[in-house]
Design goal:
The chain is of the alpha/beta class. Helices cover 31% and strands 22% of the residues. It contains 21 helices and 30 strands. An eight-stranded mixed beta sheet has the order 11-10-7-5-6-13-14-23, sandwiched between helices. The longest helix is centred in the first third of the chain and has 17 residues. The radius of gyration is 25 Å and the shape is globular. The chain binds 5'-O-[(S)-butoxy(hydroxy)phosphoryl]adenosine. 5'-O-[(S)-butoxy(hydroxy)phosphoryl]adenosine binds next to helix 11, strand 19, strand 24 and strand 25.
């Protein structure tokens, strides 16, 4: 699997120009760790525009739950991403909006984006939004969705983008948790030729929710757009009427820039809080160094703005670097599996950044969908969200990238703000190992911990992946629950940030992510807590207990799979499964619906009552038709409280 590929790849031009006198990756990395504050201080001054200079670089202690960078400095993120480019590149495209229907793109220049965001900021102010207020954004990838985020940044409001694929219940929960008085949405969006109504989801989410005072509704399809309640405001009319002038709010470096919800292994989703200056710096520097992104580049990150990848590599990173950012509304297969490469060709994209699940779905189709299009503009292809399998890696590198384009397999998390482990930037001749994220980014110091909390030394070892030093891009807290933040990330082991992933450090000292060590699963790069799905299933009046696990799936990477026990006296019927699926789609999202739900009379538990998920995973993913075939793989089950349930579960699964 992990065959070593020696590739002669061209030198990374912008391997952080500030430090080029030091040498290549290894020398700069060494300096970034040894002189950590000096390293980030230099970059903070050369890459960001400060309203008020900072005197303190960092004051952080994982032990004390304190993370702070450039604390007495002030800046404005919008001015850093847009205003400062006006003089040199006001007429350059800031955004290319590649809509679902091919051939329908729209270009927004930096000057136009500046004007749009200023008007948007004035609209928000007119609705009473002030610095520090939270604003919910339920918007598809589009210029207005991006402008909504930037308008918040401009006036110091904290945006909370909720992926426009989450259900009304999930949106409501996030609006309440962040206490949002204003919601921004579009009437809908198109995906693969299909119209998806978003406004109706918002209506349902805020029904009888007095907290929400205003819903700003933008237009995707004017005919479908319906303003239904007295809270609704037509965003287009409001923008047209709003003044163009608006002062940017000088923000303290450590003020929150945004909240973004993500799933954990237990409890409700966590609203991770990212900072103004540290986050922006980390977004800007990683975009520049990992993707060799220069001003004027055309950066194609196809992630939705509802995820961290969209925040960092569709919005903040490319704009902070003066690049043109692609906003991709569509799906990889529409109108045919050549859509990505047609988009690369049409806009002469210099970077393309997507997810393994999409790449896997495309490689099954013929090469003609690639070869038809000119991809010679590409200098980087990125992959994110889950490990990339060798087949997809080779396909990207050799087919899409004509064996010339380095693949940036980027390991990182919502919590980390930006890329953490990735083979690029690299020096000429560096080796690539398909399926391995390989090397830490500058300033990032991975450590592996064993179960006792001791640091694992040496190479060819495994452990829980942790990060030893604070870096500017790390999330600062969980909205409203700093204790949870400390417990989940900072107090698992002493003095390190715990990622939740396991990793292998190979013979060369490089890292391969081995997957989550907690009950979090990854469906098409979307993170889900199995506990969340279990909670949702047990809300149904006919289910008493549920166990959800993730099992491997060829395209999506993983899919949820459920085992449920019915309540006493409930007779099993064919409706149960449908009702369960419907409920998960309603409460969480369609992508959270289990691939199958098996009704069983018991679950494999230890005598202390802990569900043995390992056994469920084996049973669910097995192709075996006969219990005797699978029994040897299950290990010793005699220690279970009720060993006999295992065979019963197997038989039920075979029947379903
Ligand atoms: C989890 C984070 C970071 C943006 C997208 C997902 C897994 C992510 C990789 C990769 C192996 C990866 C990890 C991580 N993951 N990228 N390149 N190789 N695993 O963000 O929803 O916060 O999920 O995704 O398990 O912990 P997220």
């Amino acid at each position: 699997m992990r065959g070593r590929l020696q590739q002669l790849l061209r030198r990374t031009k912008r391997n952080l120009a500030e430090f080029k006198e030091l040498g290549g990756y290894s020398e700069i990395y060494k300096y970034s760790i040894e002189k950590n504050d000096e390293f980030w201080e230099k970059l903070a001054r050369s890459r960001l525009l400060w309203e008020k200079d900072f005197t303190e670089v960092s004051d952080s202690s994982f032990k004390d739950g304190r993370i702070s960078w450039f604390a007495d400095g002030q800046l404005n993120v919008f001015d850093n991403c847009v205003t400062r480019h006006l003089a040199d590149r006001g007429d350059q495209a800031a955004l290319i909006y590649e809509k679902d229907e091919p051939g329908n793109e729209e270009i927004v220049t930096y000057a136009q984006l500046h004007s749009l965001v200023n008007r948007f900021a004035n609209v928000l102010k007119s609705k009473g939004v002030k610095k520090g207020d939270r604003v919910a954004i339920y918007y598809p990838v589009s210029p207005l969705g991006v402008a909504a985020m930037l308008a918040c940044a401009k006036i110091g409001a904290i945006h909370s983008v909720v992926f426009a694929g989450f259900s009304a219940d999930a949106l409501r929960q996030r609006i309440i948790d962040a206490d949002c008085r204003v919601v921004i949405c579009a009437d809908g969006t198109y995906r693969g030729g299909r119209y998806i109504n978003l406004k109706s989801v918002v209506d349902e989410a805020i029904e009888n929710l007095d907290l929400v005072e205003t819903v700003l509704v933008g237009t995707r399809n004017a005919e479908a757009k319906k303003l239904t309640t007295e809270k609704d405001v037509d965003l287009d009319l409001a923008l047209a009427a709003a003044p163009e002038n608006c002062l940017s709010e000088p923000m303290n470096a450590e003020d929150p820039l945004f909240l973004l919800y993500t799933s954990g292994s237990t409890g409700k989703p966590k609203g991770l809080v990212h900072s103004q200056a540290g986050y922006l710096l980390y977004a800007a520097v990683t975009t520049s160094a990992v993707f060799d992104c220069e001003p004027g580049d055309r950066f194609g990150c196809v992630a939705d703005i509802g995820w961290i990848t969209g925040h960092t590599y569709t919005v903040y990173g490319p704009l902070a670097n003066g690049a043109t950012s692609l906003l991709f509304e569509s799906i990889p297969s529409y109108p045919d599996p050549g859509r990505y490469w047609a988009t690369v060709d049409k806009h002469k994209l210099t970077q393309f950044y997507g997810a393994p699940t999409a790449y896997r779905s495309l490689l099954r189709h013929g090469d003609e969908f690639i070869e038809k299009y000119d991809r010679s503009s590409l200098k980087r292809i990125g992959s994110v969200g889950e490990p990339i399998n060798t087949e997809a890696w080779e396909w990207l590198h050799h087919k899409v990238g004509s064996s010339k384009v380095p693949i940036a397999d980027t390991w990182w998390q919502t919590e980390t703000g930006g890329n953490m482990i990735t083979p690029v930037p690299c020096d000429a001749g560096a080796s690539f190992k398909p399926g391995s994220a390989q090397r830490p980014f500058y300033g990032i110091e991975p450590v592996l911990k064993n179960a006792d909390g001791n640091t694992v030394q040496g190479n060819s070892v495994d452990g829980a992946l942790c990060i030893a030093k604070p870096w500017p891009g790390i999330a600062r807290t969980i909205h409203g629950d700093h204790e949870r933040f400390r417990n989940v990330y900072l107090n698992v082991f002493d003095d390190v940030y715990t990622t939740g992933d396991g990793a292998h450090r190979d013979q060369d000292g490089e890292y391969t992510i081995t997957g989550r060590m907690d009950d979090v699963i990854n469906v098409s790069g979307h993170r889900l807590g199995t506990a969340e799905i279990e909670d949702c299933l047990t809300q149904l009046d006919f289910i008493s207990e549920a166990a959800v696990i993730g099992i491997p799936e060829a395209t999506k990477g993983e899919v949820p799979y459920a085992f449920v026990i019915l309540k006493e006296g409930v007779e099993e019927n064919s409706e149960h499964k449908l009702l369960a699926n419907k409920h998960v789609a309603k409460v969480i999202a369609k992508f959270a619906v289990p691939k199958d739900t098996i009704i069983v009379s018991g679950l494999p538990k230890t005598r202390s009552g802990k569900i043995m998920r390992r056994i469920l995973r084996k049973l669910a993913s097995s192709e075996a038709k006969d219990f005797a075939q699978i029994a040897p793989e299950l290990g010793d089950i005699s220690t279970l409280a009720e060993p006999e349930v295992v065979e019963e579960i197997f038989l039920k699964k075979c029947q379903s």
